[in-house]
Amino acid sequence: MGSLDRYRDRIINGPIYRTLLWLGLPAVSVQLVNISYNIADAYWLSRYSPIDVAIPRQIWPSFMMFQALAMAIGAANQALISQYIGAKMYVNAIRTIKQYFTLSFILGAIMSITYYLLRPLIFLFISSPPQEIVNGVLNYSAIISIDLFTSYFVLCFSIIIQSAGDTRRPAIVNAISATINIILDPFLILGIYLFPRLGVIGAAIATVLARIVGAIILYIIMHRKFPFIEIGITTEIDREWLMTTFRIGIPILLQNIFNSLAFQIQLRLINSFGVATSVAWSIGFTVIDIANSVLWGLSQATAIMVGQNLGANNIDRSKKIARYSQILIGSIIAIGSCFAYIIRHNIITLFIDPSDPEVNSIYSETENFLKYALFTIPFFGIFFVGSSVGRGSGHVLIPTIIDIIRLWIVRIALGYILSQYLGSTGIWIAFALSNMFSGISATIWIQRGKWAKPIIKRSS
């Protein structure tokens, strides 16, 4: 257990800012690689067909819906595992890990098959992509259903290793996976050398192959780094663990399902303005991803530090971690947003030639979206810190409510109303306002501090 003790001591006692960066920077590096992959994916698809750039973003909301269970049970078990480790209850942590892996395997298989079967209905009745890309969406999503199953393993292994305090190895593995994806894209999309020219199907195959490699490497790391944790299917599922997992996970499950539906309905609204607006949404989000590059890694560090410190009964330190995380992440994302705004034209022209009259409307629409969206991204970063505090503490209800309001009331309902008067600009304005609302609300919740209490039961 020596490796667990070393990681725990640094998280419980180390300087807060330095520890946040120590835990978070590896994942930030991965996010930068992932952004590079997203840009490369969109770039090669734009060389195949400009409108095919929109296809992967059409899939993402429905994929997120079927991945919702993985996110929910992952958040619950991250809180449990990290708090057990913080309390030095290692036997409980190992038992939790075995049950968590078993549940991930079962749910991953069920969700993958269900997504494959239901995807035509999802795209026909919910997001309704423009006719020009319907076939590409259906073909891409069929292959991505395999990726859904693999993603349950990747998330499970990553959370187990991260909860122990090792964020570097999952980060490196994700970077390797993304790099494989980047390398495979031009060969499979454009048919370079002896490879067939597959377009969006090639992009999907590259994603699946890269994810499978990542899952295998993570399993090997688990086996070698923590040999005392025997990963495998277990029939010993503790009822109390199951109830705790779903008690913590259900709000997150509902949050992710509502988020997915919201994004699909929002996508339907965007799609109703034509394929140019759909492509602009996809390119615009690629630019926003640059500003968000620090968000995912550092917020993951926040969840781990909050969880382990609550497990060690360091209540005041947990509150400081939450406040310091807001300051750090909000500031860095503000800088990233400014940088993305400065280079936005350069990035847009990677995918769109503004001198080409056939795609000039896409360029203008993308520029319009970014004008409203970029400077509100720091508010979203602050909100995401709130969600991470909720995951680390196990108190996720309030962040879930905030998230539902920002999407359903502000982004969709207000976006629909504004779009009737302002066209697609109304959608972009509502997007910006939803970020501002969520950031302000999360700050108020964190400052009140009612979340700062552990959820685990201590041994008597």
UniProtKB/TrEMBL annotation:
Keyword terms, alphabetized: Cell membrane, Membrane, Transmembrane, Transmembrane helix, Transport
Main location per the UniProt record: membrane
Domain of life of the organism encoding this protein: Archaea
One cellular-component annotation, GO: plasma membrane
InterPro entries: MATE_fam, MdtK-like, Membrane_Transporter-Flippase
Topology class, membrane: Multi-pass membrane protein
Pfam families from the UniProt entry: MatE (PF01554)
Transmembrane annotation, as ranges: 20-39, 59-80, 100-118, 138-160, 172-195, 201-221, 241-258, 278-298, 327-352, 372-389, 396-419
GO molecular function ontology, one term from the record: antiporter activity
Places the protein is found: Cell membrane
Protein name: MATE efflux family protein
Species whose genome carries this gene: Ignisphaera aggregans (strain DSM 17230 / JCM 13409 / AQ1.S1)
